[in-house]
Recover the amino acids of this structure.
């Protein structure tokens, strides 16, 4: 089924050996709700001992004041990436009193939007902008969707790989342009084959009944407290979660960097009648940053994003246009309920091999018909992925999910072999083998394991998640943390608080002027 990846791989191996694929940088952004010991959403502010959520490089908040986000620096070694994530969790547990972290993507018991406190970032213009953006999300979509946690995998290809590929393809464009185009080739293929991630790593087949209170749904009763779908893999990535229907007609192009930036810019500058009706600033209170289709780039939800490290206050699309794509952010994985930090080494190694395949395989542009197929496949896999005999669509044909997945694993495994050859281990092949077993036997997937365990123990979803949350809390509180690590994290917390204060004192523009200058960047 797939051949072009093999040609590129053979040429790379002939020129540089297996080391050509190794050394890509990996980073994680992992979200976790702070909760009470009883499983209620924490109403306390972001702990000052953790530093400033606005300026701390590693510990911040996402939508809610209670939704912590852990960020690891890029590393070529996935074990180092995970070790850093463990250290951040252990440090947080030393500074949140008797609160604990929720162990799953879908939230604990919630009492409507009002029970989810919006994150605050101080009085600087930058901090106010982040807060008002979140207020706008509340008015547009409600807060419940924003309380869902996920894991984002950041990956940049080895720097030495790009000139090798450009030479193989005899492409004469500047390296930066070639690299950006290569990342978009990867992105389009991830959109085609990324349904593997919710199938293999989806861990949200059930939700607390309170999450759907007052909203129509098609779920079944698992018990008095839990709603579910029998073959669901990732309700987080379904239409009740991040795949919000309000953005279904955006049709952002991934043909190349120019079209992607142009489409996003158009959405950020095009007024939307429904959002204009909300009002932007009403009776002196900001309700949103603007009344356009998107307030800012981050409002566009997608399973994968091209990224360039933006400077403070710089628009992401401007950074992309000026410096090109530096890495991709994979946003599809759920929080793994069976791992204390929500993701494990095998998952990261598999995703790296998958992304290398997505880069090496030919990647035609996505037309309207294929876009419908991609949306159909993701919706089907998230809600019915483990259903026996499930068939997906690919270029006008129907394919068995199982057979298609096994066919995809052949090139992924071949790439894993080269990554192992470069490292002298067998960890990548072991990761692929583990996922092969999950394709052959859906009961091995995290989503199936969760439902089976809930049935066996007679647990509602919230009881299941709270049990694991308490277990992990005990483990992290008992985890030794080197004195120098504690000292470094305390230093970062202190410096971030000082930096937030500096930003607040340095503001000379009114917020209106700041916002006008921000959106005028070109």
């Amino acid at each position: 089924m797939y051949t072009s990846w093999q040609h590129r791989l053979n040429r790379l191996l002939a020129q540089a050996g297996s080391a050509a694929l190794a050394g890509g940088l990996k980073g994680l952004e992992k979200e976790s709700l702070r909760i009470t010991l009883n499983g209620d959403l924490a109403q306390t502010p972001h702990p000052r001992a953790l530093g400033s959520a606005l300026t701390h490089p590693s510990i911040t908040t996402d939508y809610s004041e209670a939704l912590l986000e852990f960020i690891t620096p890029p590393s070529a070694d996935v074990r180092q990436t995970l070790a850093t994530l463990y250290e951040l969790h252990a440090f947080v547990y030393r500074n949140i009193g008797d609160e604990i972290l929720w162990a799953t993507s879908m939230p604990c018991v919630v009492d409507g939007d009002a029970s989810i406190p919006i994150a605050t970032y101080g009085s600087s213009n930058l901090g106010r902008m982040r807060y008002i953006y979140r207020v706008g999300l509340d008015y547009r979509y409600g807060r419940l969707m924003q309380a869902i946690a996920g894991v984002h995998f950041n990956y940049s290809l080895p720097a030495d790989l790009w000139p090798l590929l450009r030479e193989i393809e005899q492409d004469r464009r500047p390296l930066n342009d070639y690299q950006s185009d290569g990342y978009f080739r990867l992105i389009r293929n991830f959109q085609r084959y990324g349904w593997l991630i919710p199938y293999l790593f989806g861990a949200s087949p059930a939700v607390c009944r309170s999450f759907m209170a007052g909203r129509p749904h098609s779920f079944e009763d698992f018990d008095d407290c839990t709603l579910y779908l029998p073959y669901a893999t990732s309700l987080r990535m379904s239409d009740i979660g991040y795949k919000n229907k309000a953005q279904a007609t955006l049709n952002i192009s991934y043909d190349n960097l120019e079209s992607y930036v142009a489409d996003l810019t158009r959405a950020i500058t095009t007024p939307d009648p429904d959002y204009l009706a909300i009002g932007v600033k009403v009776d002196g209170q900001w309700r949103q940053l603007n009344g356009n289709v998107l307030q800012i780039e981050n409002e566009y939800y997608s399973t994968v994003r091209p990224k360039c490290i933006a400077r403070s206050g710089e628009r992401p699309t401007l950074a992309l246009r000026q410096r090109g794509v530096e890495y991709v952010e994979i946003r599809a994985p759920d929080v793994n309920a069976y791992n204390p930090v929500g993701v494990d080494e095998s998952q990261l190694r598999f995703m790296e091999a998958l992304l290398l395949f997505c880069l090496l395989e030919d990647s035609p542009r996505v037309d309207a018909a294929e876009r419908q197929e991609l949306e159909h496949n993701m919706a089907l896999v998230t809600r019915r992925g483990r259903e026996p005999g499930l068939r997906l669509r690919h270029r006008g044909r129907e394919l068995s999910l199982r057979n298609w997945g096994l066919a995809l694993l052949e090139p992924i495994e071949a790439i894993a072999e080269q990554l192992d050859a470069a490292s002298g281990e067998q960890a990548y092949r072991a990761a692929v083998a583990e996922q092969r077993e999950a394709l052959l036997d859906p009961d091995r997937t995290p989503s199936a394991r969760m439902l089976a365990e809930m049935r066996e123990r007679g647990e509602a979803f919230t009881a299941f998640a709270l049990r694991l949350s308490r277990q992990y809390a005990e483990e992290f509180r008992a985890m030794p943390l080197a004195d120098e690590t504690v000292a470094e994290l305390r230093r970062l917390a202190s410096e971030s608080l000082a930096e937030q204060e500096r930003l607040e004192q340095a503001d000379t523009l009114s917020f209106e002027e700041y916002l006008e200058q921000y959106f005028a960047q070109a």
Notes: The CA atoms of residues 148 and 390 lie 27 Å apart. The first strand starts at residue 25 and ends at 35. The chain is about 45% helix and 10% strand. The two ends are 43 Å apart (CA to CA).
